[in-house]
Amino acid sequence: MSEITRGAIGMPFEMAMGSELSRRQFHSIAQALLAERDQLKAENEALRGVMSAVVNEIHGAHISRSGNAPGHCHSIPGVWDADNGAKAGKECAWCKVWNYAVAMGNGEKS
């Protein structure tokens, strides 16, 4: 969102509606914001669909314990075990991404 758009949205009502020109400008900006919102909403829904398809495809081929990504078997879900050297006790990035993708595919994250 541009600074001009932010300024127009934050404009006092009396100023925004004070003349025919300002009303038209305000309406034009509102229409552009609505179109941008609709585009972002459509992209978000498409991404949710992709994430859901990926999760379903991978999840069907691998069995994983709750909280761990497919192929991972951390004792503490999503955290590297003590026998993983420098990674021990640290969050597993793949498990984090996987869990976010699962939640997003289920509509729990945006």
List keywords for this structure.
single chain; 110 residues; mainly alpha; 4 helices; elongated
Structure description:
The mean pLDDT is about 85. The two termini are about 20 Å apart. The chain has four helices and no strands. α3 (about 20-60) packs across α4 (about 95-105). The relative contact order is 0.10. It has one domain. It is about 60% helix and about 0% strand. The chain is elongated. With about 110 residues, the protein is an all-alpha fold.
Total count of domains: 1
Task: Provide the structure class.
Answer: mainly alpha
Strand coverage percent = under 5%
How many strands, what sense, and barrel or not for the largest sheet? none
Determine the fraction of residues in helical runs and give it as a percent range.
Answer: 55-70%
Number of helices: 4
- The multimeric state of the shown protein is single chain
Rounded to the nearest angstrom, the distance between the terminal CA atoms is: 19 Å
What series of H and E elements makes up the topology?
A: HHHH
Write down the overall geometry: elongated
DSSP E strands, number:
0
Low-confidence regions: none
Q: Overall pLDDT, averaged?
A: 85
Radius of gyration using CA atoms only: 23 Å
Coiled coil: 30-57
Keywords: Coiled coil
